[in-house]
Amino acid sequence: MNSLPLLTLLTLTPLVGAAIIAGLDPKHRSLARGLGLFFNVLALGLVAVLWSNFNAASGELQFVERYEWIPSVGVQYFLGIDGMSLLMVLLTALIVPFGLLASCSRRREEADGGDAQQVRLLTSAATEQDNTPAFVSLLLFLQAGLFGAFTALNFIHWFAFYELTLVPAYFLIKLWGGPQRSAAANQFFIYTMVGSVALLLSMLAVYLVSGSFDLIALAEKGRSGELAALFNVRIAGWYGLTPRALSLVIFFGAFLGFAVKVPVWPFHTWLPATYAEAPTGVSMVLTGVMSKMGVYGFLRILLPIFPNEMQIMLTPLLWLAVATIVFSAWAAMQQRDLKRIVAYSSINHLGYCLLGIFAVASFTGSDPKWTTEKAAALNGVLLQMFNHGITASALFYFVGLIEQRAGRRGLDDFGGLRKVAPVFCGLMGIAMFASLGLPGLNGFIGEFLIFKGVFPLAKWAAAFSVIGLLVTALFLLTILQRVWSGPLAEQGKAFPDLTVKERLIVLPAIVLMFVLGLWPQLLLKVINPTVVRVVDSMKL
Amino acid sequence: MPVLPSTALQVVTWIGAITALFAALIAVAQTDIKRILAYSTVSQLGFMFIGLGTGGVAVGMFHLLTHAFFKALLFLGSGSVIHGCHEEQDIRRMGGLRKLMPVTFATYAIGMLALAGFPLVFSGFWSKDEILHAAWLWEPSKWPFLMGLCGAFLTAFYMTRQMWYVFFGVNRTVGTSSTSSHYSSHHGEVTDAVERVPTTPHESPPVMTIPLGILAVCAIFLSLFGTPIWPWFHSYLSGHAVHFTPTIEPGTVLVMLVSAVISVGGIWLGWNFYSRRGPKTADEADPLEKFQPDVFATLRGKFYIDELYEMSVIAWNSACARGSRWFDDVVVEGAVRAVSLATLIFSWVNRLIDEFVVNLGFDKGCGRIRSGAQLLSLWQNGQVQRYLRILVLGLTIFALFFIWGCK
Q: Is A189 on the interface with B (CB under 8 A)?
């Protein structure tokens, strides 16, 4: 298998698809959709090949491809995956087709709708046409960027893909979004760009002192303290700062880049606006995979390269994570737009990931007891990323379907829909319970492991984060109460239940919620060796 | 001196005692048949906690087991009653059902007597007695025992009250006025807005009465496993051998007597009180309400504990939620807008500088160059005569320069 550059092929597959579909005539909607799905199936097949050939027990980098690219500035074409990259690649390969199918079902619906009432409801919804070749092509382009970012191991190479994902996402929101799409797309792009610039500057400083963009080599230097020593020598006295302050400034720049992406409170206000305005399929990919790039950055870059700085800033970082968890949950309680509620709940769920990552950075010495806790927390973080990707995108899909049926998506616009759409209610209920962390469904295991690990490491932060768990349950159950139970509103009587096609589209997500909830070992066995290696090498 | 129980066990005991009494008090004033049973369950859970705290696992678990059967019997019986009364849950609109629903009545009575702890025959007596006995022997305080006794007395009382309301007295299902329906819906009880059809209650089908019978048998005979003379359940949980001891210690007998008196006393008081003064119509106030209106209102309002939650936890939570949204919408979003506005202003100023400072300077410079160029262009205006003239002038200058310069 080593002879075949599988990771390059993986990134190229959607890219080639995007190029082919971009050349199609705008009329050829179904062809574009078919081709898009074809390339997604191809990508999924490649990921399956990766998964089956991946040596889960080793925890080392695999499928490595390394070529010199621009030797004079240390840029290499350096690809490879370990357990956590593989998990993210799998998530990307699963969520993008889900989003694609969710976007493409609309036209078909309208064509099939013999019921006059239904057609009227449908046409009153947003008039976007999100299955044009351009849409599909941009979505595939986005997927290529995501694959690239999750497999790249040289900073410049990685950064190129990281930034490249912004472009298709920007146009997808700007061209196919809701009424406020222009403002939302601009805010999204500029906000993320500011973070990226800060990150780039910081990494340039790191390059300046270390002469390397290689994330693996830098992680080695970061762990051993060599990087800190180099900061002291190479750029001592810049801006009249002490080496320690300077290293913190550099850390903060990198932190800002990922903090905006995840997002960390208070850099999060772009997210609800963006997710609410983006078309359903794009919201699904944004929350399902793109937000994970921020967390992945924390894991791949910040945690290994800046362990000392993270330790110094541990207390504020932990409380930022707590603020992210708690304030976003409370803010979600106050939202009246279903999409905004789910968006805020996304911030909340990724807050748990941050809590886990920061707690792992705490200083504990080399007692093996702490290694277990840290491994639990990091495993939890990775599972939470994966599980949130699935549940949140399913929730966005359901909210999109509600909006498509009723032309509205306010929390107070509905009531009693369970009576007319029981299957819809049941499946969305499963997704919501998975999201609030009901044991037996996938949301539970990640949060449980995070709290198991974080509680002994940072007990106060963990204790206050529990408020977030509680409030999450509150606002998700409020949706169940306001939208699905109670007296049936008059205009809701024509609300159709899920069609067979819609059921089939969401079925894999629902099945995964149960499978991963009951059998988390399926993923744990792949990520755990990587996590153990990371934690072991971090013995501080 | 014996070792005192751990703090945790003491807390468990106290919480159990408070719960047992508190919930029993609330159950006295409820009018929804299932709500009475629900508060009764809370109260019995309090008893189980007293048992866990004072007597250990076996004591608490035995009551849990017996309670499971007779409370299941009561809830199923209440379902039969509700079904028979056409989805009516308010005990004030029942009455006299013992003749109309004989099987339900008989089984419900067994459940009620088991819950009330009627002596010797019923399982609830034995399991509750074991708890009270353990509480009596508890070292730190006798209060949990006394509170448990009060709770047991109240249990007997409110179950008798419920029995009387549902199965005795006059039938109040017919002729229900609309005001009482209003009253009940005002209190949040489940009522349909549909006009009430006065129909005669009926006995439930065998699919409901047969399970009732099975549960009733269990409510009686389960006690066989946990009497003081043959504590099989206790030894099963503790892992020791079973001893059949026909002799009972005097202390045990004393507590048994007290427990029996309390139970029978509660039933007797409830029966006397309600059979004499019980309401004749659905709208008539409860005799306890006439007797002590304020106390009754407090009990009916569940000590206003829901209102307390509403004012504390829920209000606090929504205040925090509003605060978080405000922070997002005003502070964070404001900061973002301020930064964006500052950038715009900066760009605008920059443009002004470009246009009026840089560009003007550039224009002036350009003007100078232009005028300079105009001067130079005088030399080459296209007239051959002028070119020749300048040529001659230049040659002359060069000639002079070479002549003088080479010297």
A: no
Residue A403 belongs to what domain range? 313-540
Q: What's the whole-number mean pLDDT along residues A356-365? A: 86
Domain co-membership, B211 together with B107? yes
Which residue of chain A has the CA closest to B333? A269
Which ipTM did the prediction report? 0.83
Which residue type occupies B240?
H
What confidence tens digit (pLDDT) does each residue in B225-273 have?
766 666 677 777 776 666 666 666 777 788 888 989 999 999 999 999 9
Q: Is the pLDDT of residue A112 over 80?
A: no
Q: Does A316 touch chain B (CB under 8 A)?
A: no
Test mutation, B332, B339, B341, B347, chain A, max A CBs within 10 A: B332
Which amino acid is residue A281, in one-letter code? G
What is the residue-wise DSSP string for A233-295? HHTTTGGG--HHHHHHHHHHHHHHHHHHHTT-TTS-THHHHHHHHS-HHHHHHIIIIIHHHHH
Range of the domain at B121: 7-174+198-300
Burial of B267 (0-12, 13-18, 19+ CB in 10 A): buried
Interchain pair B324, A334: CB under 8 A: yes
A106: contact with B, CB 8 A cutoff: no
Query: Do B222 and B329 fall within a single domain?
Result: no
A324 Cβ under 8 Å from any chain B Cβ: no
A269 contacts B322? CB cut-off 8 A: no
For residue B307, being part of any structural domain is answered with no
Q: B192 to chain A nearest CA, in Å?
A: 12
* Contact indicator for A473, A436 with CB cutoff of 8 Å: yes
Same domain, B218 and B334: no
pLDDT band of A327, cuts 50, 70, 90: very high
Q: Annotate B134-147 with DSSP letters as a single string.
A: HHHT-SS-SHHHHH
Domain count, chain B: 2
Chain B CB within 8 Å of residue A186 CB: no
Determine the Cα–Cα distance for residues B189 and B194; give it in Å rounded to an integer: 14
Of B321, B331, B336, the CB nearest to A330: B321
Interchain pair A327, B324: CB under 8 A: yes
User: B211 in a domain, yes or no?
Assistant: yes
pTM for the model:
0.83
Average pLDDT over residues A319-332: 95
Under 8 Å between Cβ of A298 and A358: no
Q: How far is A188 from chain B (nearest CA, A)?
A: 12
The Cα B27–Cα A510 span in angstroms is 43
Q: List chain B residues with CB under 8 Å of A478.
A: none
Q: Are B283 and B317 within one domain? A: no
- B341 touching A, CB under 8 A? no
Domain finish residue from B256, B272, B300: B300
Q: Are residues B250 and B339 in the same domain?
A: no
A326 located within any domain: yes
Q: Are residues B217 and B254 in the same domain?
A: yes
